[in-house]
Amino acid sequence: MTSPRRWEASLGALPDGDGARFRVWAPEASSVEVVPGGQEPSFPLEKGDEGHFTGRSNRIRTGDRYRYRVDGRGPFPDPASRFQPEGVHGPSEVIAPGRFSWSHPDWPGVSPEDLVIYELHLGTFTPEGTYAAAAARLRHVADLGATAIELMPVADFPGRRGWGYDGVDLFAPARCYGRPDDLRRLVDEAHGLGLAVLLDVVYNHLGPDGNYLAQFSPSYFSQTHGSPWGPAINLDGPNSAPVRDFFVENALHWIHEYRMDGLRLDATHHLHDDSPRHLLAELSARVRGSIGRPIHLIAEDPRNLAHLIQPEGAGGWGMDGVWSDDFHHELRRYLVGDSDGVFRDFRGSLADLARTLERGWLFTGAYSIHRGYHRGTDPAGLPPRRFVFNIQNHDRIGNRARGERLNHQVDLATYRAATALLLTSAATPLLFMGQEWAAGTPFLFFTDHDEELGRKVREGRRREFLTYAEFADEANYALLPDIQADSTFRACKLDWSEPEAEPHASTLRLYRALLRLRREEPALRSNRCGGLHAEPIGEEAMLLRHDPGEGRSLALVARLKGTGAVPVPALAGEDQPRWTVLLTTEDPPFAPDPMPPRIDVGGPGPTIQFDRPGAVLLAAES
């Protein structure tokens, strides 16, 4: 059962009886007026403590549109607008969240041990690219065995398409996907299917087009810090307390007004905050203090900081998890040989991959060539579910020049083995839409900016590839898809006929089988520190062994490259249990051209003979 709501919105235009009340922060302004969208005359708000302007009117009701005029300038959209029906430069609309009828008010949430995340982009997940169309496809995600969807950012952004990381109206769901209640219906549908909903939010910057915060106060932006995308948010300078409140209120807004089950916080290493209490610690405490069901706060942060995912009482910042891209980078360097960009820091070593599987991340203080600083701390004692592993995500596909997925670059047998390694790891797995059937479609970077901004973004993307070996020949730049073209966006839409056809259908069966075992086997659900042992077997295979303390042990033998016998002496000995096969990735249900390995783990010299890459999952007999 969920606890009673213990939060009330304080910013924006909020329904109030037969009218609406308004509250906006503009500390340097002398006057702020509400400008109704129709023929009604504007009316002033009253300035109060800390620079907030407030007021109430019966002339604006739910569904009406309005803007603010600040010291005679404008009018501008509301910084806390709940909806921008005409786009980021248009008027804001008064929205009444309390009118939505939730079908699952007692939704209990999903525990950290059960979390399997399915990341999706609303515009390309379905042909229609809407909240409603995505809701209609959620049965597929639930049947797959995922327990949460993670929506790429929905805070409204300019244009008709985009990844969402240039959002400017942080409280307003993107109009290109539908209306606010359409998003609520998506969340409600997910809860009815047993799926949690996580939302990707961007608090480190705002996009360059449609960002009107500085019109209300320059104090929203830092005078001492910067970001790669423009001005950094003022989290620690003069007048920063109301700015911090604005972003914390945004988090609470999504958790309460849309019943989200958690947030993925983008690039938290660019949340520059030298305050005694970091914004993430404050946000975590205030979110948890407002609600009684499980809420998952997950950071994207390459610094490998243990205190990021430790409780505030232990000196941490209270995040529940962090994207640990070390796993992805090490595995991809090993399988594909990528060596540009972030991959410069990785050797493609199975020994390093084993360390990452056991510890949660690889870098614990070593120097990062790519980032130019010593990266990482010791993660000892942190529960394994706090680390989010993936073999594909939106960045790692879309930031490739041609948007190639892993299954576009390795054969399907290798892809199945990598899948087994991910889904039997102790970490929280994250899947990217379509990977469960080895989708043939790419996921490219795409935008819909005005012509001048689009040109600048194109040039910036071109600069990103200057150091890549593939683009040493400038002629290759002509092969890059046009990020502004509608055809680039449309090429990324999933093809929902694929899961019914081979080889996609058999890949989907493998994902379903592995996620079923992850749900049913206590060893794969365990969040116990030290319960996983990983070791390379030669230069082409890996052993994972789960010893949960209670229940039977499991072992995965994955040949990631090559062919031949893989000896597994770690499974032999008088003190070892007898092992039985639970699954092999090259069995007929999972491979359209089956080639099962020959397994002999009952004798003194356990061996698995592979004729191609693959994986075998074994269970200890009781």
From TrEMBL:
NCBIfam families reported for this sequence: trehalose_TreZ
The answer to whether keyword Acyltransferase applies is no
Catalytic EC class: hydrolase
Of the GO CC terms on this record, one is: cytoplasm
The record's active-site residues are: D266, E300
The residues that hold substrate are 264-269, 325-329, 394-399
Q: Name a GO molecular-function annotation.
A: 4-alpha-D-(1->4)-alpha-D-glucanotrehalose trehalohydrolase activity
Which reaction does this chain catalyze?
Answer: hydrolysis of (1->4)-alpha-D-glucosidic linkage in 4-alpha-D-[(1->4)-alpha-D-glucanosyl]n trehalose to yield trehalose and (1->4)-alpha-D-glucan
Name the gene: treZ_2
Keyword terms of this UniProt record: Carbohydrate metabolism, Cytoplasm, Glycosidase, Hydrolase
Pathway(s) where this gene product acts:
Glycan biosynthesis; trehalose biosynthesis
Q: Which organism is it from?
A: Aquisphaera giovannonii
Q: Where is this site: Transition state stabilizer?
A: D395
Family from the record: Belongs to the glycosyl hydrolase 13 family.
- Which BP terms from GO are recorded? trehalose biosynthetic process
- Any idea where the Glycosyl hydrolase family 13 catalytic domain is? 94-462
EC assignment: 3.2.1.141
**Which cellular compartments is it found in?**
Cytoplasm
Q: What name goes with this protein? A: Malto-oligosyltrehalose trehalohydrolase
